[in-house]
Amino acid sequence: MTIPIDKNNKGQNVIYDVKNLDLWYGNDQALKNLDFAIGENEVTAIIGPSGCGKSTFIKTLNRMIEMIPNVRTSGEILYRGTNIFDKSVRVEELRTKVGMVFQKPNPFPKSIYENVVYGPKIHGIRNKKQLMEIVETSLKSAALWDEVKDRLHDNAYGLSGGQQQRLCIARCLAIQPDVLLMDEPTSALDPIATHRIEELIEELKKNYTIVIVTHSMHQAGRISDKTAFFLSGEIIEFGKTTVIFSNPKDQRTEDYITGRFG
Amino acid sequence: MDKTVRVKDIIKKNINSNKNRQIEKIMPTLFFLAATISILTTIGIVSTLVVDAYKFFRQVPIKEVFSTKLAPLGSNPSFGILPLINGTVITSIIAMGVAIPIGLTAAIYLSEYASENCRKALKPIMELLAGIPTIVYGFFAYSFVTPLLMTIIPDLGAKNALSPGIVMGIMIIPLVASLSEDAMNSVPNAMREGALALGSTKLEVTIKVVVPAAISGIIASFVLGISRAIGETMIVVIASGSSKNFTFDVTKSIQTMTAYIVEFTSGDAGSGTLGYYSLYAVGLILFVFTLLMNLLARYISRRYREEY
Predict the structure, then answer these.
(1) Chain A contact for B186 (CB, 8 A cutoff)
(2) In the beta sheet, which residues pair with residue A44?
(3) What family is this (chain B) (predicted)?
(4) Does B198 touch chain A (CB under 8 A)?
């Protein structure tokens, strides 16, 4: 599982290789024949109008989609070479490597400290000193430490929405994942909090591979390296963000980006 | 002819009508009266209890009240209330020993594991159990559970504390399960998702996230169950007999506070006698018991509440 990270060769290593992925909710096909790869230490943005399957897709990457009844998939998603749908893959193990941040901040109704140590604790870390160290580094990486270091034992719901979302990011970072999936992480936040999260993503991509679903084209343009444009469950265009935004090949991509629909 | 409805004019006419204004004035008073009825009733009950219990405590020294000898009808009557308190506490403990683990596990199954269809079918059936008259449970304890227990514990008395305790527990399971399930069901799904996304198993999500988040509702269900057990009458009257023994042996016949009141109100105590007033003293103590339970529940659920 340890592939050396070469800073000069960003994007060289493939983290996720999606092959002929189809997905159905009952009889409705939500994803159609997706076929693309996500590179290491890149920020991949997924854009597209509501209902185009972008949330469905990102939830497939850590198999959270299986919480919905009657979901069927075909095709493969290779995570570092292993098909995540393979019977030998334990979803719990996959999810420790692939963290997820949700649309609405969802901290547990516990203290800030308890939120961060939740993951490490269920995976067997009991040592108080180690836990405190994890709390500090995780909160620092999530750019929240300075704001909460004096009230670690207060309830997380006393934090503002933006702080709660950064806490959720810290909670993911505490188990040292490989990939961060973010499902519209700023859609419930005000512009200032959004800006802070975007700065944070900029910082995090040095160490993590990030896949982010976003409704905001500007956000995709600002923070991502690669962009995938989804429409009705298909990938219309995928490539370098700069290229997609300045010189889209497909008319539908151009229409969406320039705001003519969606 | 102008056919459009003149909404503005109609509103203007109605908004100043006397009838509407008077209703607006009267209704709050009605609401207030409805709200005070239960408070007034409580005050009434408590004052009757206190007045007559006072007559009892004036005649019987407090030392005798808290003794273990209860013989209200003897030639030299003695009014130690400890055997009754003991009887109530023991049967309630047995009942909660049955109801809490089974009720909570059932609630966890219904809320976290059962499919939607399964839950829809099971929950109403379970709640139906709560509607069975307690006298039926009493018979069930006396004529089925006691004989069954005798095959395991040969020297079990025909009247004993164990069997009604267990049956009371069975009676309370639906209450605990249903209220705990409501509490767990109202935990937002986003929290389960958050925990699952960190690689938790379903069991870890349930025990470390859902149950703690619902703990105040769960504890409230326990306390309601305990109150139910303390106040339960018919089952213990039928299946635990009326021996006024101070004993911790659950195979022996005991009497609870409620059963004592039943025994005496069915004719043994003439009005104005000491035995008659002792009913009010027992009633008052019963009342204080449940009051303390409720206060404790409030404290615990506030102390452990996880707000979201």
Answers:
(1) no
(2) A211, A226
(3) Belongs to the binding-protein-dependent transport system permease family. CysTW subfamily.
(4) yes
